Amino acid sequence: MKPFRRRWIAIAMLGLALDLAAAAQKPQAPAAPPAAAPQPPAAPCPYPQTFPDMPGVCHPYPQPFPKKSNQTTTGCPGKDCKTVIVTGEGIFPRMNPFNYKTFPGNNFLPSVYTDVFDSLGREILNTLPSTPTAPYNLHDGDPQVSPINPKSPEDDLTAIYYEVMCHLPRDLTEDSKEAIEQRCEGKQRKQDDKAVRAALQRALDIIEGNPVPDRAYSGFPLLHFDSLEKVRKAVPIKNEKGEIIGGNVDVHQIWYNQRIESDTAYVDLSPLKPPNVPQGVNPTWTITYTVDVLSRGRDDFSPFAMYMDPQKPTPSMPNPPAMPGIGMDQSFFDMEDGTRTVFKIKMAPVSYFSLVYTWGWRMHPPRAQVMEYASKQICYTGPPPCPPTTPQPQPPPQSAGCPAEYQSLTLPQLEQAVFCQNPNCTSARCGAGEPRFTADGQPTPCEQQKLYAISKIGDLAPEKRMWNAVRDAQKAADQSNWKEVRSLMIDEGLPAFLDWRNRNLLPKKVKDWVVKNVPDYKHSDVMLLYVNNSTYGELTNGAWGRWDPWEHRPKKLRVLVLNGDHFVHSYTIADFGGNRGWENQFRSTVKVAGSGCWFTFGRNWTWLPVGGPVNSYICVAETGGSDGLTPSAHWIDVELNYDPSRRLRFYQFDPFHHDVAIYSVH
User: Which residues of 287-309 are buried (b: 16+ CB within 10 A; e: fewer)?
Assistant: First the structure.
C-alpha cells in the first residue's frame, strides 16, 4: 500500500474515532455566562468546555482569539515599500501537524454534531453542515440538474483564433499544406474577409461580456470591470400576516478551467434587517445558486460561509465590534461538465453574515470566488461603523499609501469610486436594449462608461492585452490589412491568451520585468500580481499551490505583491483554523452524487493575522510608469507564530475588491 494512501486512511480512521466520541455531545446554550473563576495560564474558554480533558478546545463555542499582529509599514508608496508583520502567538502549544508522530496536530478539533454558538452564548442556526444521518444538512431540498451547452470562453476563443487564421489570405504564411489543413480542421482553406471580421467581433463580445448566442457564459466578461453591477439584494419571504420570516438571494455562477465567475460579488441583506423587521428579529435566509459547469469545470460545489462573532460589552467598550467567527463548507456536491445544477443553501441569521467563499478543490488555487456582505465599510481609524468626516482623515502610517477618500465607503461604493465615470453609477455598461453606438458610429454614454471602466484595468493584464489585440486587429481588418491582422493575432493575442489560461504563473511579460528589476525576487516565497481586478500567483520554489516548507512555527513568509491595475489594491491573509482550530467530518456520499470516501465538510474558527480589517490595511499602489506596463511593488515579510492547518496554510485576498482577487496556498 502506498504511503500517502496509508496516511489518508489514518486520517479517515482518526476522523471516525473523533466522530464517535463526540456524537453523544449535545451542548446547550447556557442561560448566562458562568461565574468568574480562576483561569489557567492558557486562553480560557468563554463557557464550560464540551471536552474538559482537551485544553484549548472550546468548540462548538468560540475558540479564544490570538493576540493581534504587530505591523510596520515603511517606504510606501514608493520603490522601497515594505510591510513587516509579526503575528500573534497561536492559542495552541507548538506542534507539527504534518509530522507522522504528531499528526494531525493539536489545532485539529473533535467533530461535534451541533450548531455552533457565539460569544454571547447563543446558538447560531444553520451552522452544522453535515451529520451521519444528514450529510447535506444545509441543503434546502435536492439539487436540480439539467444539461447545458458546455462550450466555455476558452473553447470559443481557441476556435476563433483558428477561424481567423484559416480565412486569412494564403500568401501570408509559409505553413505547409499539411499544417494549413490541420489548422482548418481538414477543410479547404480560403480567404473570407467577412468570416475574419465576424470572428474578431465574437472574440470582442466574449472578452467584454456582450451577449453571445447559445452560450451559458453570455454576459460574463473576461475583463473584471463590472463589479459595481454585482450587488444582489435579498428578496423577503413573508408569512400570511405579511411579516418577514426569511429571504432569498439568487446567484448565477459559471465554472470552467481555473475559474469561477459569478454575477454576485456583494450581498445586500438590508431588506431583512430593521427597520424592515422589528428590532431583535434576526431571520435565517437562503441562497439559490444556479451553477453552470462548462468545459474542464468539473468539481464539487463547495460554498464556504464565514460568519462574524458578536462580542460582550465591557465598561471600556460598550458597543464592541464583531470579530471573526466560524467558517464552514456548506456542501460538497459533485458537478459534471455540461450541466446546470440549482442548489438552495440555508444560511445563518442575517446579523452574522460576513461572506461566502466558493472554491473548487480540483483546481485550487486559483478556482475561487467570493460574495461579501455589501454593508462592510473601509475604516482606517478604528473598527466599523466609522462615521464620515470632512475632510477625510489621512490613513495611519501603518496604512501608508491607502486612498484617504476610501474611508467610510462600503465595498460597493468603493467599486463605484474606481469604475464610475460619473459618480455613483450603478451600471458599468449598456443594458439590454440600450444602443452602444449612435447612427454615425460614435459610442453612446453607456458605451463610454464601459470604456472608462475598462481603462482602469492595467495593460499588463492578459485579458486587457487580448482586448487590445482584438480591437487593433479589427481596425486592421477594416482596412484590409491582413498582414497586420495576422501579426496581431500571433504576436499579441495568442501569448496573452496562453498567459490568461494559467493563473498559477505570472504572465510572461510581468515575470520578465520582475527578473530584470527585482533581483531579490528569488528570496521571496510567493509572487502575487493584482491585475484585471483579480490575481495571478506563483510560488518561487516551483510548487503548484502548496508551500510545504511551513510545517510549524515560527516560519518566515516573504511575499512580493505587484499591482498592474490603475487603482489601489489591498493585501490581507486569512487563517482557516491554524490559529484557533479546525474540524473535519468525513462522510461517504456516493449514493447521492458526492465525492465518495474523501468527501469532507470542514468547520474552522477564522482569524486575520495580516492586513485589514482586524489589523491596519496594507495597500499596494497602482501601476507606475507612463506606459502603464510597470507594476508597483510591495514587499510583505511575515513572521508566522502559529502552526498551519493541514487543510489550508493561508488565504491571500484583496479586502477592497474581493470577488476573484484571491490566491490560496495549501
Answer: bbbbbbbbbbbbbbbbbbbbbbb
Q: How confident is the model at residue 303 (pLDDT cuts 50, 70, 90)?
A: very high
Q: H-helix or E-strand containing 201?
A: helix 193-208
Q: What is the pTM of this model?
A: 0.91
Question: Which letter does DSSP use for residue 75 in this model?
Answer: S
CB 273 within 8 A of CB 264: no
Give the C-alpha separation, 357 to 604, whole Å.
14
CB 598 within 8 A of CB 589: no
Among 275, 232, 472, CA closest to 371 = 232
Cell triple for 97: 501537524
How far CA 275 is from CA of 231, 239, 286, 386, in Å, comes to: 20, 17, 20, 20
Q: Is the pLDDT of residue 553 over 80?
A: yes
The residues spanned by each domain of the chain are 144-149+226-419, 153-222+436-501
pLDDT tens readout for residues 458-483: 999 999 999 999 999 999 999 999 99
CB environment 469-492: b (16+ within 10 A), e (fewer): bbbbbbebbeeeebeebbbbbeeb
Contact 646, 108 (CB under 8 A): yes
